[in-house]
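Sample entry (252 residues):
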Amino acid sequence: MDDMYNDPQTYDFKYAGYSKDYALILEWASQMKGKILDLGCGTGRVIIPLALAGYDVEGVDLSEPMLCMAVNKAKQYGMRIKLQPMDVTQLALGFQYSMMYMVGNTFQHVLTNHDQKLLLKGIYQFLDDDGVFIFGTRVPQLHELSQVQRYQEQYKNESMFDVVERHVEEYDPISQILSCRTEKIIRDRDGREMGASHESLQLRYTFPQELILLLAANEFEVLQVYGSWDKEELCQDSKEMVCICKKKSRIH
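Predicted structure, serialized as tokens:
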């Protein structure tokens, strides 16, 4: 598991405000009659609002610290949501679901061809025959990935301490994996360094036509492809790709 997911407080502080994916997820959830599964639910950014809206939702995530935070956040609303620690490539579920979704570019954490197939096999197994699978992933930007990227971010954390993050990102065109390394330095209100830590992250990039073939090879029909969660057209300038899929119909 990548290091950043062992620190749910910082993760939530940085990403909890993101909501561009919620409207499309909600649009499709409103058409479903059965259970909905969040694959890689994290700290509950999407699943908790869906539960508050009255949907029958469950979630899985590999990170137990992230799940613990999601449970605690749900309790603040007086809710108990079924959340399970689970690798999305090894789904072992007790129900069928009318809808499954992956947000936050979770698909990119599935790094190998083998694991991508295992993921889709599990989704196919536990998705209703008339259900939908929705997910998004970044579109490879070759002009960025072709060179090592070095950049720095600075922000104040939840304790109002200054945080400096120095990032180095390097892409391997053979494995199609971007390796990200981060040095994080925290300074107190007087500017004194409180300590430094290092994090690593790996992300798999899948090209659009490669992704369509992958879905087809694993018995999924693509209903719609967008260039963003706002349903923009997929084009050469798109930074992300959002797919809405269903199982292929089988003729007996």
